[in-house]
Here is the input.
Amino acid sequence: MSLVKNAALFVGGVVFGSLGFKLLGSKEARNVYVHTAAAAIRAKDSVMTDVTRVREGCGDIVADAKQLNEQKRAAQAEKSEVIEDESEADKQ
Here is the structure.
């Protein structure tokens, strides 16, 4: 009994597999694949556009932060020059 059952399952699997290959290779299935791939490409393009915008925004933020640090360093250097000048004037 188990030999007949196993043979029937094997034959059923072969038939099901053959039908599956025919269905997957049909024109309708190909159209589904094409539309799915096109949607995936559109989604990728949209994501890449958003990533580019975020990178540009981050680049602007970093540039502004560097400029702010330079301004603070210049102000700190100017302040320390004033303190040094006053201390030199006190010594004389």
